[in-house]
């Protein structure tokens, strides 16, 4: 893994410094100044207003405005309030949170501290996916450093504000990245998402009011506090301000991470920054935002990478995991990989998701190996449709969308499998 | 007693960090697995006592998560990521070749119980594909030779 | 009280209820307003995973699950429009993709919610060409239940039941996704006092009872409403009857008595009805000490003769009676009148006691101890003391609980009694010393009422007829009374009339008769209030 993204901005510009992951190194570059400012010069409401004005959208895939989410936490009452940092990054194609944990744990902690001040939270649980053993070690080390310097604990920076951070590790289940699935797992149970309402702000971790935010979301916060909303809005688009860390993978010359403003055209990211497709081959399709997001075909890659534009193309920014597929790629094989993933990761509660992901995977595999009929494609689309908007959580939607996207733009690949009774793409990646 | 005093002490420390005891269950299972490699029925009974829940509630958690096991495991765990970005860069042919190299069909273990070879879903290393996770450690930017060398270096 | 409109019909609901609860409260669920559902159960916590109960709520863009949507005043709900119907069909089709085509060999057929809803709301033919998942089909979950993993639709009712009702929690869902499966922990089988209820609540044939397995097709069974006689709780049941035989008891919902549950022991007590040790013929002891089978008339004649002889020589004070908590109020009222008319001053109620719990199981192991006491029978110890003191020469015993309570046995000179007349359903030690034996009807064979431990009067109706001659206890006593020429006894016995007589004579039973109790029962009039009336 590289130390820093190929293109950096305010989030990752110092990641190349050897000591940046340590508290000392972080402070050398002005770290924890924003937290000090927030805790000593700003009221919690001021902080929330500032983050709202800045327009920071959550970076965990849903894009919900962070400031608004913080304002949902109850102001009155004596129940303890919690923050949860969702570091369960398991969306295929997404690997940005990992570098933020490895190299920028203090930046995230500073954002957490500011959010805690804003919401009145007494503790934050950082839930890190179990497979991220090394990043989790880095975070634990950073937390210990922060406690040692009294940036966490009973009397943060001498202000009287108390805040604890508990690092906890998952055990391998994608569904624990879903807000309420995470909360269930945090409580020591199976990560099965909860029915909503109640929402976490009313009933969250251990039954207490809770706000869940992504690693990257927290990481933007110190910069917003330090340099203001107008500065933050100087990056990105009007509706989607700031930068994000795009992860580019698949058939590109330079796969890796790129911190760029939201709204950067997808084609620029793929062909300029990531060097385009190796061997001079042509692009066939690109998934723009992690595997749950529908694919974009070759002709539609000029789209600015921000939700307001991607939605028009029937896809979304998600976690900015850009997966590039060249002309050799068999889209039915892609469907096979995708449908297997969703079948394996379904928690199994809801009928449509449990049975639908299984059925879709079986049909796709059968079509892929040449034993499908055209009517199977109708069934595929229909089953995917039956899974949308009718389940406890959005996993079923996330499972349905990619299949719908592939059928929408690459139906011919499927039809050829049916007609030729085999995969017609001899050069495609192996299954 | 299957769970050692030392591990019980670590579990107690973990429990003290959570507002409710049960919040420490996943950490406790990780700790127990670090000792024994899996959660046996006896172990589940002991964990149930510690957490004041039923043994079946421990086992339903163990069976839900990929990283928890309810039966004895091979000494070394090798997981090749076969999700989309990795597959696009040859992860599956890599896996096939490792299968031949070890004489195993994934998911499966070598007859001497030395290595378990399996596949996993996205591990957050998409830009450094193909890759594998060996005994918890990431090995990225692999080619077949490099991967084989890593497997061969795994001790008895 | 919020008012909501469902399919154009206005309903008033209680505060804090969900749509399904409100319909259930109003008696409309699946009975006027059809919202098919699997995972929801009126007596268990909400699960919300089957997704079948989706309905359209005006003003909310997505369909909502009716089991988890609280009613709001002015809410408008649609349950049968095209959007809802399509969503339902979607869920049904997906459930049927992996469900095995076991109907021909599955006990649940005929009372299966998957069959019912597939027929009403599903699609006719499956579009799936994929092989169904293959799992274990005959899992021994415990002493009472068999589990078929393939049939399970993962509604999780059984898991919730074990956790919430007996609170034993033996079941859980292991794994995830379409590998999910219900399991027990090795060495901890499904084994609690209420285990067989899981077969009732399982919407499909995944959980079935070993007792009923492969016995008979449910469409041959007539469901006769009745009351369990295993203890004083009086759980409401349906007796499953075919060919004049009771094949099973299943609980009948009564929110005032047993909700939707019954304990395993009570459920299995149907076996008493046709048990081999049922008394099948009247008998009288001859001079050489053996029992001769006789008809009822002869038995009455002999009994009356022996009692008359004693009355003439020593007076009626030497005759005592043991009431039975297995007898109906009508039987017992007749018996009470008989003893009074006879001039006997010694009577009492013996009832076997056992362990109780804080759910349904009551200490007294018979259905009508409260009724017997309300009718005026005191403790049986008084009778035993007098027998031991030698003051009693004749005993008329209803049932044999006095034996099991240890009140009668080798210490009491039962054998030295001049006359022992026994009216009973099943054989007992009393047969060895009785002089006259008359077989009487089980609760499943007669019309009458019981009063449960919560003072609720509940009725039983004849569900089957025994293959041999039997009589209600009251009927036998009435004939005995007539044979003795007692005032008020003409030999006839009509349970309805006796019930009315009891209501007239006893303020606690005021207004209660075998019609007015209905199928759900009625409480005895408050005794404090009725004391004031006396």
Structure description:
The complex is a heterotrimer of chains A (431), B (156) and C (534). Chain A is α/β, with parallel strands linked by helices and 431 residues long. Chain A has three domains: 23-233, 3-Layer(aba) Sandwich (Rossmann fold); 243-326, Ubiquitin-like (UB roll); 331-420, de novo design (two linked rop proteins). Chain A has helices at 23-28, 33-41, 44-54, 66-71, 96-103, 105-119, 133-148, 179-186, 215-233, 266-273, 307-310, 331-345, 351-368, 374-387, 395-420; strands spanning 82-87, 123-128, 164-169, 210-214, 243-250, 256-261, 283-287, 296-297, 321-326. A five-stranded mixed beta sheet of chain A has the order 6-5-9-7-8, with helices on both faces. In chain A, strands 3-2-1-4 form a four-stranded parallel beta sheet, sandwiched between helices. The longest helix of chain A is centred in the last third of the chain and has 26 residues, at 395-420. Chain A starts with 22 loop residues before the first helix and ends in an 11-residue tail after the last helix. Chain B is of the alpha+beta class. Chain B folds into two domains: 5-64, Arc Repressor Mutant, subunit A (Orthogonal Bundle), CATH 1.10.10; 76-152, Glutaredoxin (3-Layer(aba) Sandwich). In chain B, 45% of the residues lie in helices and 13% in strands. Chain B has seven helices and five strands. Chain B has helices at 5-15, 25-36, 41-51, 55-64, 84-88, 91-102, 144-152, and strands at residues 76-81, 108-109, 115-120, 132-134, 137-139. In chain B, helix 3 crosses helix 4 (55-64). Chain C is of the alpha+beta class and 534 residues long. Chain C has three domains: 3-80, Ubiquitin-like (UB roll), CATH 3.10.20.740; 130-272, 2-Layer Sandwich (Alpha-Beta Plaits); 282-443 and 469-493, Rossmann fold. In chain C, the strands form six sheets. In chain C, strands 15-14-20-19-18-16-17 form a seven-stranded mixed beta sheet, sandwiched between helices. Chain C has a five-stranded mixed beta sheet with strand order 2-1-5-3-4, covered by helices on one side. In chain C, helix 2 crosses helix 3 (113-121), helix 8 packs parallel to helix 12 (473-483) and helix 8 crosses helix 13. The radius of gyration of chain C is 28 Å and the shape is elongated. Chains in contact: A-B, A-C, B-C.
């Amino acid at each position: 893994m590289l130390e820093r993204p190929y293109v950096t901005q305010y989030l990752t510009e110092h990641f190349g410094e050897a000591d940046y992951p340590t508290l000392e190194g972080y402070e050398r570059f002005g770290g924890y100044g924003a937290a000090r400012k927030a805790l000593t010069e700003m009221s919690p409401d001021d902080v929330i207003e500032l983050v709202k004005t800045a327009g920071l959208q959550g970076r965990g895939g849903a894009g919900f405005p962070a400031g608004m989410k913080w304002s949902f936490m109850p102001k009155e009452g004596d129940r303890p309030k919690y923050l949860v940092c969702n570091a369960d990054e398991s969306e295929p194609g997404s690997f940005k949170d990992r570098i933020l944990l490895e190299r920028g744990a203090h930046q995230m902690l500073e954002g957490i501290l500011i959010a805690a001040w804003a919401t009145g939270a007494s503790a934050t649980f950082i839930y890190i996916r179990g497979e991220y053993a090394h990043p989790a070690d880095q975070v634990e080390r950073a937390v210990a450093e922060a406690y040692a310097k009294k940036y966490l604990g009973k009397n943060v920076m001498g202000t009287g504000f108390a805040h604890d951070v508990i690092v906890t590790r998952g055990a391998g289940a994608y569904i624990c990245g879903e807000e309420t699935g995470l909360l269930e797992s945090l409580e020591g149970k199976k990560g099965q998402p909860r029915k909503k309402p109640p929402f976490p702000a009313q009933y969250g971790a251990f039954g207490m009011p809770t706000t869940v935010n992504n690693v990257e979301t927290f990481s933007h916060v110190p910069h917003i506090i330090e340099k203001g909303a107008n500065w933050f809005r100087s990056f990105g688009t009007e509706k989607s301000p700031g930068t994000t860390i795009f992860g580019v993978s698949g058939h590109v010359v330079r796969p890796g991470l790129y911190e760029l403003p939201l709204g950067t055209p997808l084609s620029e990211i793929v062909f300029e920054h990531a060097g385009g497709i190796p061997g001079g081959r042509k692009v066939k399709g690109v998934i723009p935002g992690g595997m749950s997001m529908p694919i974009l075909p070759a002709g539609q890659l000029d789209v600015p990478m921000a939700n307001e534009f991607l939605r028009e193309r029937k896809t979304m920014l998600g976690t900015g995991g850009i997966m590039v597929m060249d002309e050799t790629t068999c889209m039915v094989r892609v469907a096979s990989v995708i449908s297997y993933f969703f079948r394996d990761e379904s928690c199994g509660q809801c009928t449509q998701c449990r049975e639908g992901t299984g059925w879709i995977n079986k049909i796709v595999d059968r079509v892929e190996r040449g034993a499908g009929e055209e009517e199977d494609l109708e069934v595929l689309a229909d089953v995917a449709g039956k899974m949308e908007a009718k389940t406890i959580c959005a996993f079923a939607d996330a499972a349905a969308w990619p299949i719908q996207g592939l059928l929408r733009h690459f139906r011919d690949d499927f039809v050829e499998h049916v007609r030729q009774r085999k995969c017609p793409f001899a050069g495609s990646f192996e299954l | 007693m299957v769970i050692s005093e030392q591990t019980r002490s670590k579990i107690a420390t973990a429990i003290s960090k959570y507002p409710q005891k049960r919040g420490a269950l996943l950490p406790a299972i990780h700790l127990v697995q670090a000792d024994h490699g899996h959660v046996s029925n006896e172990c589940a009974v002991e964990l149930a006592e510690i957490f004041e829940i039923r043994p079946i509630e421990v086992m339903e958690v163990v069976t839900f998560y990929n990283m928890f096991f309810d039966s004895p495991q091979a000494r070394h765990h090798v997981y090749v990521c076969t999700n989309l970005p990795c597959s696009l860069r040859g992860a599956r042919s890599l896996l096939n070749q490792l299968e031949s190299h070890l004489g195993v069909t994934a998911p499966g273990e070598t007859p001497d119980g030395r290595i378990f070879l399996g596949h996993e879903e996205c591990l957050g290393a998409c830009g450094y594909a193909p890759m594998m996770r060996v005994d918890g450690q990431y090995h990225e930017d692999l080619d077949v030779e490099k991967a084989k060398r890593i497997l061969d270096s795994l001790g008895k | 009280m919020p008012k909501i409109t469902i399919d154009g019909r206005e309903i008033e609901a209680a505060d804090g209820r969900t749509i399904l609860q409100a319909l259930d409260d109003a008696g409309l669920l699946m009975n006027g307003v059809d919202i098919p559902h699997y995972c929801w159960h009126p007596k268990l916590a909400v699960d919300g995973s089957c997704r079948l109960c989706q309905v359209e709520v005006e003003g909310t863009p997505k369909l909502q699950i009716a089991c988890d949507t609280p009613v709001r005043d002015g809410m408008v709900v649609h349950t049968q429009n095209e959007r809802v119907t399509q969503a339902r069909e979607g869920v049904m089709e997906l459930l049927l993709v992996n469900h095995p085509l076991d109907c021909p060999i599955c006990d649940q057929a005929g009372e299966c919610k998957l069959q019912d809803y597939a027929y009403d709301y599903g699609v006719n033919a499956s579009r799936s060409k994929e092989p169904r998942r293959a799992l274990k089909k005959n899992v021994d979950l415990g002493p009472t239940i068999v589990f078929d993993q393939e049939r399970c639709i993962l509604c999780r009712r059984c898991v919730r039941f074990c956790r919430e009702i007996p609170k034993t929690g033996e079941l859980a869902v292991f794994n995830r996704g379409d590998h999910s499966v219900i399991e027990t922990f090795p060495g901890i089988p499904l084994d609690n006092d209420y285990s067989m209820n899981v077969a009732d609540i399982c919407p499909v044939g995944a959980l079935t009872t070993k007792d009923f397995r492969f016995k008979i097709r449910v469409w041959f069974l007539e469901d006769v409403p009745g009351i369990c006689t295993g203890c004083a709780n009086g759980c409401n049941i349906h007796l499953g009857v075919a060919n004049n035989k009771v094949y099973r008891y299943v609980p009948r919902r009564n929110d005032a008595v047993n909700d939707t549950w019954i304990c395993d022991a009570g459920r299995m007590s149907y076996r008493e009805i046709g048990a081999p040790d049922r008394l099948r013929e009247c008998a009288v002891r001859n001079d050489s000490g053996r029992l001769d089978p006789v008809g009822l008339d002869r038995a009455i004649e002999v009994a009356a003769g022996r009692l008359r002889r004693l009355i003439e020589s020593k007076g009626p004070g030497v005759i005592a009676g043991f009431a039975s908590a297995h007898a109906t109020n009508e039987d017992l009222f007749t018996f009470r009148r008989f003893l009074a008319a006879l001039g006997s001053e010694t009577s009492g109620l013996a009832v076997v006691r056992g362990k109780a719990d804080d759910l349904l199981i009551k200490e007294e192991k018979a259905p009508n101890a409260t009724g017997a006491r309300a009718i005026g029978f005191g403790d049986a110890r008084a009778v035993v003391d007098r027998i031991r003191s030698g003051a009693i020469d004749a005993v008329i015993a209803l049932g044999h609980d006095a034996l099991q309570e240890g009140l009668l046995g080798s210490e009491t000179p039962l054998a030295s009694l001049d006359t022992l007349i026994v009216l009973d359903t099943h054989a007992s030690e009393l047969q060895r010393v009785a002089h006259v034996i008359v077989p009487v009807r089980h609760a499943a064979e007669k019309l009458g009422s019981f009063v449960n431990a919560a003072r609720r009067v509940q009725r039983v109706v004849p569900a089957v007829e025994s293959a041999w001659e039997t009589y209600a206890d009251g009927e036998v006593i009435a004939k005995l009374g007539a044979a003795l020429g007692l005032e008020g006894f003409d030999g006839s016995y009509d349970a309805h009339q006796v019930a009315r007589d009891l209501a007239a004579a006893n303020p606690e039973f005021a207004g209660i008769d075998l019609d007015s109790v209905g199928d759900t029962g009625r409480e005895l009039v408050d005794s404090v209030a009725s004391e004031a009336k006396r």
